């Protein structure tokens, strides 16, 4: 005997989105309707499927077993239906600046796919704004100005701070920002980024800083992971290396780099407007500080 389809649909959406309200929005019904359908399914199965904790929703052991099967069935059913209707899946074309694409966005796209299995994404990357045609994309992420026909919003207030390898950090003998100037400084802005950093720290720049030049902030960050010196980085770029212990952040010396604020650019009149809205909502959630 199969469970009711509406109940399975409500359960799948709630489990995938971890929210009754978000499931209701996606299914175009009320939150109480979703909750009612999930309760019907739990009564049918005879076991609790979801743990309701304040605003969060978590799967029980039984819910996890059922969801793994239901989700796979829904994804396969959606794929077969699109094939029978001869309709290609909706594809969002995303252009991201190298600094945010490599370490931050690319590893998270599977999370977006899990929430929206009906949507495909094509992620492209560029180091400079003029390296790609913006008209080919639905969404653009970077520190670049908005292309014509796009509207913008700042992702968050981004702070830049010195990073270094643990071995380099152990060589520091004081909590004085000036001590960093005794070591190699990797710059992706011909030294201007470090000049501004010195101004913010109220330091007089030495006549000859030990500058090492690279083309991208990502390269500067990578360069210091295995050697001496410091680079100016941010959470988008250095986050994974900081989490793994490859890098140490000196956040007490952070500052806001004038050209280092990331923007989300998107077309309001895109034929993929619904998919764009889903991506923006997901991206906003990803940028929220982790609870606990």
Automatic annotation (TrEMBL):
UniProtKB keywords: DNA-binding, Transcription, Transcription regulation
Secretion signal span: none
PROSITE patterns to which the protein is assigned, alphabetical: HTH_LYSR
Sequence ranges assigned to domain HTH lysR-type in this UniProt record: 3-60
Biological-process GO terms, alphabetical: DNA-templated transcription
One example GO MF annotation: sequence-specific DNA binding
Coiled coil spans: none
Gene3D superfamilies: Periplasmic binding protein-like II, Winged helix-like DNA-binding domain superfamily/Winged helix DNA-binding domain
InterPro entries attached to this UniProt entry: LysR-type_TF_proteobact-type, LysR_HTH_N, LysR_subst-bd, WH-like_DNA-bd_sf, WH_DNA-bd_sf
Family: Belongs to the LysR transcriptional regulatory family.
PANTHER family for this protein: GLYCINE CLEAVAGE SYSTEM TRANSCRIPTIONAL ACTIVATOR, HTH-TYPE TRANSCRIPTIONAL REGULATOR
Protein's UniProt name: LysR family transcriptional regulator
């Amino acid at each position: 005997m199969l469970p009711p389809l509406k109940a399975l649909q409500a359960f799948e959406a709630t489990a995938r989105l971890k929210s009754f309200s978000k499931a209701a929005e996606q299914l175009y019904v009320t939150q109480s309707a979703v909750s009612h359908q999930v309760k019907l399914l739990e009564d049918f199965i005879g076991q609790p499927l979801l743990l309701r904790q304040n605003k969060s929703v978590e799967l029980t052991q039984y819910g996890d077993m059922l969801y793994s099967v239901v989700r796979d069935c829904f994804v396969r059913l959606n794929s077969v239906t699109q094939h029978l209707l001869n309709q290609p899946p909706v594809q969002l074309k995303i252009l991201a600046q190298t600094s945010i694409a490599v370490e931050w966005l690319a590893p998270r796209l599977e999370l977006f796919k899990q929430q929206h299995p009906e949507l495909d994404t094509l992620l492209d990357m560029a180091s400079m704004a003029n390296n790609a045609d913006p008209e080919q994309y639905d969404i653009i992420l970077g520190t670049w100005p908005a292309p014509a026909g796009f509207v913008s919003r700042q992702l968050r207030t981004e702070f830049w701070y010195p990073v270094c390898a643990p071995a380099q950090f152990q060589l520091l003998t004081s909590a004085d920002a000036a001590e960093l100037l005794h070591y190699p400084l990797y710059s992706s802005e011909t030294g201007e980024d470090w000049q501004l950093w010195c101004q913010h720290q109220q330091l007089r720049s030495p006549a000859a800083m030990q500058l090492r030049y690279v083309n991208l902030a990502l390269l500067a960050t990578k360069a210091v992971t295995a050697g001496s010196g410091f680079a100016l980085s941010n959470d988008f770029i250095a986050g994974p290396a900081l989490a793994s212990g490859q890098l140490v952040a000196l956040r007490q010396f952070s500052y806001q780099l004038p050209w280092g604020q990331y923007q989300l650019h998107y077309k309001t009149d895109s034929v993929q407007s619904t998919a764009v809205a889903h991506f923006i909502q997901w991206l906003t959630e990803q940028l929220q500080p982790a609870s606990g």
